[in-house]
Amino acid sequence: MKFKYKSYGADICIFDAGLAEILGFDLVKGVRKQIVGATGFPEDVYLHIIHIVIGSFKFKIEVGFMDIRSNSYGIVGQKGFFDILVVKFNLLKKTIELKPAMAKLF
Fold this sequence. Notes:
It contains one helix and eight strands. The chain is mainly beta and 106 residues long. It has a single domain (10-100), classed as Beta Barrel (Cathepsin D, subunit A, domain 1). The strands form two sheets. Strands 1, 2, 3, 4, 5 and 6 form a six-stranded mixed sheet that branches. The two termini are 23 Å apart.
């Protein structure tokens, strides 16, 4: 499955609620929080712990799932993505390089 990269300004990683079911999570069994994002209105998000594998590195992070009303799958956040990975964008080559910033293995 491909994920579209949309933004790097979110506090936490947020993915579409439909992905929670695909990943085997019961959406509403997560910790319910309200966030205010780009819409400017409070919206419900359900927090779950997920495991991510990039190459030989494994990470356990908390992400939020919510109804995203666009053709996007989600937004990577400062916590759970940019605090764990060193990210290098090369616009000329149209590549993104990800390297672990620390050993946050599970």
